[in-house]
């Protein structure tokens, strides 16, 4: 009798455990929300486009976008589990997190900078006669939008082209929105600034572009996903990637020149559409290709700067997962390149 009761009790517990597991599994599948952040500048346009044109919704994916000051903040939130995915520069923080075992994957690229850059080096318009070239920044204070961010590499590249190093300047951080005021007040001498804020500040007579040709073709911003999203909700991860890739394709050629695109960017950046249409534009790979060489160049730079917790390059290939983009391309079909690419912005 005792044995029968025991067996019945065991079976009851087992059934309950299976029921809980099934509910947990169903619950995980029903969670179709993806949380991530963005910096309210132009390079994050793929997120704006996919959201506003209903590409995420068409995949039954709900995207929660949180505004941030710097792209490197996304890596912090991803590591903390507050975000499911991230889009932004591959900065020192994320590389250190990779070394420490953060479970994430680089799923696809975001933007590539080509001259004229969408993130140029700018100065106060009233100092244009004093600071005529990057070489004139020796001994001066230059800002980026976040510590250890990919924009730091931008400054490095601009200085290198002018025969200077980061040791020749004082590097500091100022949020993109605060750059024009900081330049006007003289608290900084130059800064990295993202479009369309550059064109807006130029229209207001506040800033002058000092250099916008010191980078040509490197990709330092990417789409990342945490392993819980990829492994536990693969359908959501794929749906997000498909919508994202569609947005990348919308931004090819004349896709930038539409009033609709400009109005969507205006909504997230608070910069008038008319200004957006005149801004320098970034480039997006419509097939979502990831450049390992570009990632390793960033690693090399941050190792040289001694801001990483390691001194030998990390093998980045285990952190790259191209399968979602490959599946997305299978579903969407091959990309048809426009016959004539639009001329980059002024």
What report would you give on this structure?
The chain has two domains: 31-113 and 218-332, D-Maltodextrin-Binding Protein, domain 2; 121-211, D-Maltodextrin-Binding Protein, domain 2, CATH 3.40.190.10. Helix content is 42%, strand content 14%. It is built from 14 helices and ten strands. It has helices at residues 2-30, 45-52, 55-58, 72-80, 92-100, 151-161, 179-185, 197-203, 227-232, 234-250, 259-269, 273-276, 292-304, 323-332, and strands spanning 33-38, 62-67, 85-89, 104-109, 121-124, 141-144, 170-173, 190-192, 207-211, 221-226. It has a five-stranded mixed β-sheet with strand order 7-6-8-5-9, sandwiched between helices. A three-stranded antiparallel β-sheet has the order 3-10-4. A two-stranded parallel ribbon has the order 1-2. Helix 2 crosses helix 10, helix 2 (45-52) packs across helix 11 and helix 4 runs parallel beside helix 5 (92-100). The longest helix has 29 residues, at 2-30. The protein starts with a helix and ends in a 14-residue tail after the last helix. The model is unreliable at 1-29 and 340-346 (pLDDT under 50).
Annotate the secondary structure layout.
Blueprint: H1 2-30, E1 33-38, H2 45-52, H3 55-58, E2 62-67, H4 72-80, E3 85-89, H5 92-100, E4 104-109, E5 121-124, E6 141-144, H6 151-161, E7 170-173, H7 179-185, E8 190-192, H8 197-203, E9 207-211, E10 221-226, H9 227-232, H10 234-250, H11 259-269, H12 273-276, H13 292-304, H14 323-332
Parallel strand pairs: 1-2, 6-7, 6-8
Antiparallel strand pairs: 3-10, 4-10, 5-8, 5-9
């Amino acid at each position: 009798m005792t044995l029968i009761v025991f067996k019945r009790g065991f079976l009851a517990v087992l059934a309950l455990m299976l029921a809980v597991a099934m509910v947990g599994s169903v619950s995980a599948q029903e969670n179709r929300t993806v949380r991530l952040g963005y910096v309210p500048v132009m390079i994050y346009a793929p997120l704006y486009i996919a959201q506003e044109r209903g590409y995420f919704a068409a995949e039954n994916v709900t995207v929660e976008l949180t505004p941030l000051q710097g792209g490197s903040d996304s890596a912090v939130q991803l590591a903390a589990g507050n975000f499911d995915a991230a889009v932004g520069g591959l900065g020192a923080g994320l590389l250190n997190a990779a070394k420490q075992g953060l479970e994430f994957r680089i799923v696809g690229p975001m933007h590539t900078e080509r001259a004229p850059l969408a993130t140029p080096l700018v100065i106060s318009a009233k100092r244009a006669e004093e600071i005529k070239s990057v070489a004139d920044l020796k001994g001066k204070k230059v800002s980026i939008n976040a510590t250890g961010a990919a924009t730091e590499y931008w400054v490095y590249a601009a200085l290198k082209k002018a025969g200077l190093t980061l040791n020749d300047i004082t590097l500091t951080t100022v949020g993109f929105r605060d750059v024009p005021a900081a330049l006007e007040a003289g608290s900084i001498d130059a800064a990295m600034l993202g479009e369309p804020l550059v064109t807006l500040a130029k229209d207001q007579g506040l800033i002058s572009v000092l250099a916008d040709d010191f980078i040509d073709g490197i990709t330092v911003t990417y789409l990342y996903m945490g392993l819980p999203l990829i492994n536990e909700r693969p359908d959501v991860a794929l749906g997000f990637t498909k919508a994202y890739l569609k947005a990348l394709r919308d931004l090819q050629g004349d896709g930038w020149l539409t009033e609709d695109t400009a109005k969507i960017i205006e909504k997230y950046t608070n910069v008038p559409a008319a200004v957006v249409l005149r801004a320098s534009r970034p480039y997006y790979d419509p097939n979502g290709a990831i450049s390992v060489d570009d990632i390793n160049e960033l690693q090399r730079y941050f190792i040289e700067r001694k801001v990483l917790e390691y001194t030998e390059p990390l093998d980045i290939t285990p952190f790259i997962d191209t399968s979602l983009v490959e599946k997305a391309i299978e579903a969407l079909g091959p990309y048809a390149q426009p016959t004539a690419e639009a001329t980059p912005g002024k």
